[in-house]
Amino acid sequence: MISHRQGNAQRISALDERAEALHLKRDMGIADARAMHPSIDIVEADPEADRRLLEGLADWCDRYTPLVALDGADGLFLDVTGCTHLFGGERAMLDDILSRFFHQGFDVRAGLAPTPGAAWAAARFCGDRIVVSGEEEALLAPLPLAALRIAPETRASLESVGLRTAGAVMAAPRAPLARRFGATLLLRLDQALGRLDEAVSPRLPVAPLSVERHLAEPVTLTEDIERLVGLLATTLKSDLERRGEGARTLALLLFRVDGAVSRIALGTSRPMRDPRLIQKLFHERLAALEQDIDAGYGFDLVRLSVLAAAAFDMAQADLTGEVTDDGADIALFADRIRARLGEGAVLQPVAVESHLPERAVAIVPFSEAPRRTTPPKRPEKMQAPKTIFPPERPIRLFRAPEPIDVPATEMPEGPPLNFRWRRALYRVTRAEGPERIAAEWWRQAPDDAAASTRDYFRIEDAEGRRYWLYRQGLYGGSQAAPRWFMHGVFA
After folding, report:
1. What are the residue boundaries of the DUF6504 domain, all occurrences included (predicted)?
2. What contacts 80, CB < 8 A, 6 or more positions away?
3. Is the bond preceding 416 in cis, omega lying within 30 degrees of 0?
4. What are the backbone angles phi and psi of residue 388, rounded to the nearest 5°?
5. Most CB atoms within 10 A, among 58, 185, 412, 435?
6. Where are any strands of DSSP class E within 312-371?
């Protein structure tokens, strides 16, 4: 038996058939149960472990339908609309589900009905039963009130006035029921009978495109899985071409014969639908996860899904039949590195609209970096060359400016004569500047404009090393004296 704490007492939360044969029941106190049978075995409940097990079973049920939802702590909803013919019909699918769960060691009750409420009642009160459309009322009529999925308080109130079955509730006038017991009672009744729709919310997003292959003989080798990925990607290519799209996020699902499911996902920096390239990416991903994937007795179902897609731009080939794309090789290289080492393995700097140097560039994953959608414009032949060069920037920019001590300057607004940085004194021989950089006006108050103004200098010391430092604040601009910072080095 399994126990859990309810209030200040330990009570039975679940029990097996042998415990039921001893006339023990759920919610019975553990002290009373031990008084009746001192030799019983009791295990403390672990809700987190039960939740993980239920989620694992939900992943395994993806082999029947992608619309799988959790139902409380011990149930699953499967929306199999349009899927039963793939398994030989409703009875064949239900028998296959029950048989596979039985061989995995689970005692499962299943029901199949046109509505979620009727299926829930059939599974929990009738066992293995298929309800045909129109038979929902006949199914529910003899069942207890718990088959309507209503609160225990409502059930107790209904039983106190003599309504002990669902059929008795259906035969009673609706208006008095709604006034006395609330609208939820009629809502659950109408949902079970199909008068109102009840949506099943899947726990995982449904992929817009998926292809799968059922295997007569389970596979265990990585080479066989990669070969199947190539075959599935070839099938997927035609669907992507018909939609004019390419895959941006792909997921490979490997269903093991004993119920375990391995889910492998990867992203692409560009829309992709070439089976050869998709196979290369999963080759890298499988190589990185080879130690983590346990094939066990083998995988009997392999599915390749497109979780996210984007418009696929066709490139024009030249007279030789080759397509010129300068960034394709770099994108494929980055995707393969990311597939093996993770999303953060390849980063790319992206310009940000900010005057401050430490804010002007952001480091983002390669797949999130913006891509040029139109080719750059070619300059006109008669256009005069530009004579204004952008200001020189250091090779290494510090993540955060470091404070330095400046004992003296040539003039109040001029460069320092020497400075102390990291406990070392440097003598300045050459200096260029200042280059004034101010923060964005919307980031600061008007009173702080002078204090946040920076004057940058390119400094060379006596040994030829070059630095990029700045003075923050203006002399006479505020009560606080200006401060000096080191922001980068040139070499």
Report:
1. 408-488
2. 64, 65, 90, 93, 112
3. no
4. -95, 120
5. 185
6. 347-351, 361-365
Secondary structure class of 203 (helix, strand, coil): coil
For tokens 């030989």, the residue is: 88
List the beta strands (DSSP E) in 238-360: 245-256, 261-272, 299-311, 347-351
Share of the chain above pLDDT 90, in %: 53
Contact between 473 and 454 (Cβ < 8 Å): no
CB burial readout 177-211, b (16+ within 10 A) else e: beeebeeebbbbbbbbbbeeeeeeebebeebebbb
How far is Cα 370 from Cα 327, in angstroms, rounded to an integer? 13
- Residue where the block lists tokens 């829930």: 120
* pLDDT tens digits, 261-315: 999 999 998 899 999 999 999 999 999 888 888 888 899 999 999 999 999 876 6
Residue 445 has pLDDT above 70, yes or no: no
Q: What are phi and psi of 385, to 5 degrees?
A: -65, 150
* Residues 306-352: tens digit of each pLDDT: 999 999 876 666 666 665 555 678 888 888 898 888 888 888 888 88
Q: For residue 392, what pLDDT band results from cuts at 50, 70 and 90?
A: confident
Token pair of 285, please? 């991903």
d(CA 139, CA 132) in angstroms, rounded, equals 10
Return the beta strands (E) in 53-199 as ranges: 68-71, 75-78, 111-112, 129-130
Q: Output the pLDDT for position 365.
A: 83
| Residue reference for tokens 């993980």 | 52
Contact between 343 and 363 (Cβ < 8 Å): no
Residue 76 pairs in a beta bridge with 70
